[in-house]
Write a structure and sequence with these properties.
elongated, 6 helices, binds zinc ion, mainly alpha, 186 residues
Length: 186
């Protein structure tokens, strides 16, 4: 009986999480790898979400997730939003903890819920940001790998910044002046 209860609770958590991810326009691959639900099940959930909640403007992404780390540094608006998002991910401890546990396990479900809370905090602060949910997933992984992107602090106000892992870094945040630092004189 206890096993049945646990199983029921976990299934419930998976469905709740899947709906939450559908609302955030997460890709099917992300929903599958976090909840452990099959593509077919996700498709049905998406259909019932759209039909019953009238969310006709929610799109289901099927294609490949974003892959360009340079996107986050492309202009001042994106740099500000990327740095703001990284700072929220950091506050929730999501840059130190990986999403490497098995799909659908209690650890993975808890981690994914926390990621959603962080994303919702970002939306509250930034309204309708240029960055989407999948950008947030990509940014977190890129900051974990530190091959293309890294974190630094603004040399004037100390705010957290997303910067290129190699090459010229900005002198400060967009409020203090974000022109790239000149290379040191030789
Ligand atoms: Zn600053």
């Amino acid at each position: 009986m206890r096993i049945t209860d646990d199983r029921y609770t976990r299934d419930r958590l998976k469905f709740d999480l899947a709906f939450r991810l559908i609302r955030h326009e997460a890709r099917t691959g992300t929903i599958r790898s976090w909840t452990g639900l099959s593509d077919d099940r996700i498709r049905k959930l998406f259909r019932s979400y759209v039909q019953h909640l009238g969310a006709a403007d929610v799109r289901r992404h099927r294609g490949k997730p974003p892959r360009q780390a340079a996107y986050f540094l492309r202009n001042a608006l994106l740099r500000r939003q990327s740095s703001g998002l990284a700072s929220i991910l950091c506050q929730y401890g999501l840059l130190e903890s990986s999403d490497s546990s098995q799909p659908g396990t209690p650890e993975r479900l808890r981690w994914a819920e926390l990621f959603c809370v962080a994303w919702e905090t970002f939306l509250q602060e930034y309204g309708r940001p240029q960055l989407g949910f999948e950008h947030a997933c990509f940014l977190r992984r890129a900051l974990e790998r530190q091959r293309e992107l890294a974190l630094d602090n603004c040399s004037m106000c100390g705010a957290l910044l997303v910067v290129p892992a190699f090459g010229r870094r900005p002198a400060g945040c967009c409020f203090c002046g974000d022109a790239p630092l000149e290379p040191a004189a030789t």
